[in-house]
Design goal:
Elements: H1 5-20, H2 28-35, H3 39-51, E1 55-58, E2 64-67, H4 76-82, H5 107-121, H6 126-131, H7 133-157
Antiparallel strand pairs: 1-2
Helix pairs in contact: 1-2, 1-3, 1-4
Length: about 160
């Protein structure tokens, strides 16, 4: 299994949303700025996350996204699946046609590994990730960096 940027960015963006969406929707531009993820890429990811029922959108001024349910009910495996990322380690994508249309000798090993990875990721909620001390510290550092950038831009404008 190789988790691509699609899965990694979706999880990162959902953690960011969880951290920052207290009582108001969060814009994708804000997430993009904090996480250095392209806005157009986030739009694609959040379209899929919304279709999967993990986030809700609010239109208009002050609009953006918020979690569609409590963060302790959204699991990493759901996020990865929502953006069409595979958690499959078999070479045949679980079809069992790995060796000339037939199952290969190691198919059950890789299938079992896929199941273990899915179970592991399905046991980690956004609430679990946000509660970690390092997540809190990194989020604070990102906010501090944005404030410094904004201050520098304002100083240059004067």
């Amino acid at each position: 299994m190789r988790l691509t940027t699609k899965g990694r960015y979706a999880v990162t963006a959902m953690i960011d949303l969880t951290l920052h969406a207290q009582d108001k929707p969060i814009s994708l531009a804000d997430i993009s700025g904090r996480q250095s993820i392209s806005l157009s890429y986030l739009e694609q990811l959040f379209s899929r996350l919304r279709q999967s029922g993990l986030v809700s959108s609010v239109r208009g001024p002050g609009g953006g996204y918020h979690l569609a349910m409590q963060s302790d009910r959204i699991f990493v495996a759901q996020i990865i699946t929502a953006v069409n990322e595979s958690i499959d380690t078999t070479s045949c994508q679980g079809k069992g046609d790995c060796q000339g249309g037939l199952i290969c000798i190691t198919h059950s090993l890789w299938q079992d590994l896929s199941n273990q990875i899915h179970e592991f990721l399905n046991g980690i909620s956004l609430a679990d990730l946000v509660a970690k001390q390092d997540t809190q510290e990194i989020a604070q550092r990102q906010l501090d960096q944005l404030l410094v950038l904004e201050d520098n831009l304002q100083a240059q404008a004067c």
